[in-house]
Design brief:
Layout lengths: L3 H13 L4 H13 L4 H8 L9 H10 L3 E8 L6 E7 L13 H14 L4 H11 L8
Length: about 140
């Protein structure tokens, strides 16, 4: 089902290449078939695609970008659980900043702790852990 509210957004996305290949596949599927569950999307898109990972991850990314939204829940015919129904929003996708990895968060905390230390031995240990020279954190 094609919705007029999202038709202009779809044209802009197409014209300007605003989505990666995998995100575009998910967006296209929902634009034509939405609202749908993640399982419906994955089942349809991975047919014949050996590298089918990441479709459900793309849903969350597209939501963060403003291109998709959760429009309700439904019972999954396979599991009987309540699952999310996804659909396009009609908004132009906006890039988002990726979250820091656990390693990046740990390094950031170590750098913060390092900046408050007076103990030179401890400072040296942290610098070694961070893989940097002692003076580059001062």
């Amino acid at each position: 089902m094609k919705r007029e509210t999202s038709a202009e957004a779809y044209r802009i996305i197409e014209k300007n290449g605003l989505l990666s290949r995998r995100r575009k596949q998910v967006y296209d599927y929902l634009y034509v078939n939405g609202p749908c569950t993640a399982k419906q999307i994955t089942s349809s898109l991975q047919k014949g695609d050996e590298n089918s990972g990441g479709y459900t991850t793309r849903l969350s990314e597209l939501r963060r970008m403003g291109a998709l939204k959760e429009v309700g829940t439904t019972e999954c015919p396979s599991t009987g659980h309540n699952v999310i129904l996804w659909d396009v929003t009609g908004a132009i996708p906006v890039p988002f900043k990726k979250d820091k990895t656990k390693l990046e968060k740990s390094r950031s905390l170590l750098r913060e702790a390092y900046s408050h230390l007076d103990d030179s031995d401890l400072r040296e240990s942290i610098a070694i852990e961070l893989g940097i020279r002692n003076e580059s954190l001062d």
